[in-house]
Structures
1.
Amino acid sequence: MTSSATTTWQHGCRAAVVSAATAVVLTSGVAFGPDASAAPVDPYEFAAAVDREAISDHLETFQQIADENEGNRADGSPGGVASADYIVQVLTEAGYAVEVQEFTTESGSESENIIASTPTGRDDNVAVFGAHYDSVPEGAGMNDNASGTAALLQVATELIATEPLNNQVRFTFWGAEETGLEGSAAYVDSLTDAELESLIVYYNYDMIGSPNYLIGVEDGKADSYNGAPLTEGSAAAMDLQTDYFDSIEQPWQPSEMCCTDYNPFHDAGIPIGGLYTGGREAPKTDEEYEKFGGVAGEFPDPNYHTAGDDLANVSLEAIDINTGVIAFAAASLGASSESINGIAPTEPTTSPSGSPSSSGSVPPSTSPSTPTSPPSSPPTTSSPPTSSSTSPEPSATPTPVRSTAPTTPSPEPVPDRKPFSGSMAETGAPALAVIGAGALAALTAGTLLLRRRP
Ligand SMILES: [Zn+2]
């Protein structure tokens, strides 16, 4: 992986701040609006309720964008720009004041990161969740990485309706990952030391719908990564995800970290984590087949970085499973980051626009056996709201910002979680034959040199 250290960064984020929409988005029959008396969301309920059908719709949109733009959504291309536009539109309609951070890539083309932070929550204690939205030029990039993008978009859309939060949750959508992690590197480079210190964790979702999937949790307990020890908190960040999987009896396995957008955060000393369902590193083993079904002896994603990475070759089942843990982590850390950085919940802070907040808080519910209702204990500390923003400030040299005026959110309540439908690939049923160990070894021998996610 080539370094992105030489990326040219045009200073600062441009925040297109619009009046915070008083959106009331309904999740699973329970409304969490701006009413300060609303009960905090339960992370388990939130995880189960995120609308998977809406994620499927996002995926279809990204495929359509590729179809209309020479089959890809590569960074800087019309398909890439249209993908970014769609993300901005969805986040704006959900009620976010979306920031578009423009930067110039090493190749000299223009790209942008899209950043949406919850209006409430401490901005000095921020959980960051990210996914890259660009594809390689060879294909539509539906697993890599419309999968992570679509899931994150929907979690963001629904989390804002659960406010007020204790901690800010920031959703980031990176450009120019496929050209060398340029978007995430530009973002990290743009942060001050204080802003970096405000980050609880960075979770990354890159390829979470591999058609022959593994449920891989990025290994926050490894001795080191990319030449440096993992930052303290990475192990707890992994536990937060695996405790959720354990609570729903979802098998998982550690995934060796490699070469995606958490690299710049790791290099900056931020705890990191994420999910990954596998590419072409190695064929699925017999043991993995026993855990996850699919097809032993075949790659988790044989279409990696090819024209075959399309809507027909994405596992909605894998995205469904992973969406739960993304939502769980977001809701949990929005309530408390104590399990990762020791900072106990405080009174929810007010948003810059002054929306009231007075409700209690939800410590992270990480016990695998207790999908619970919110605890009865009130906030235990009373740190004053932080008034000095640590968000990236607008640049002194303003550049155009796209319009992000929120529109009225859909009034339709989202009933119980909907199953995916449609013609997309379904995997996971352990109905296919396990190939012999000899064939497996032969396949493996020929593929170990392939690296994932350049
Ligand atoms: Zn990727």
2.
Amino acid sequence: MAATHRLALLTALVTAAATLTAATATAAPERAAACNGYVGLTFDDGPSGNTTRLLDALRQNGLRATMFNQGQYAAANPSLVRAQVSAGMWVGNHSYTHPHLTQLGQAQIDSEISRTQQAVAGAGGGTPKLFRPPYGETNATVKSVAARHGLTEIIWHVDSQDWNGASTDAIVQAAGRLTNGQIILMHDWSANTLAAVPRIAQGLTARGLCAGMISPQTGRAVAPG
Ligand SMILES: [Zn+2]
């Protein structure tokens, strides 16, 4: 074999190996890189008619997330709460009817939170440890009632603005601003958010970040425990 032919063969082999490596990384992003940090993906207002599609997308892209369910929907759709858990998600409390809690008295706040704890647990979602007040609105009374139910209040570091009509591109870009430990607000019902899931996963993998759980102790995203 002439030297030029050996060189051509070597070049072809190296190219083939590089192509194979790239193909493997694309097929299994969750195994492509170590996790240099964790972020908390959160989806509010479910479960809904969109939940099954969202869970499929998250699972297909190797992502786990925290689902802040409304108690009224958990009570109406217990099988979807179980599906969230089966898909590896964590289930949090997002009040029962999504009121402006800061405009309610202590007894009504307690009712919103305690009925949701019961609805989620009754559906098989476990007793939530995380609470997100609707609209992120809180005060001392809301905090104290949540604490009395063993709940840690979780707001967010990054707002995807999916509730405000953000495009899929904008939602992907918002997720791209997350740093280690931070939490992003998204919604169960948003079609643009559903469409963004594969690109969110790709972006996190490219930055060495993984989707983690939210620690009830620190309120920050950590490795799933
Ligand atoms: Zn909400």
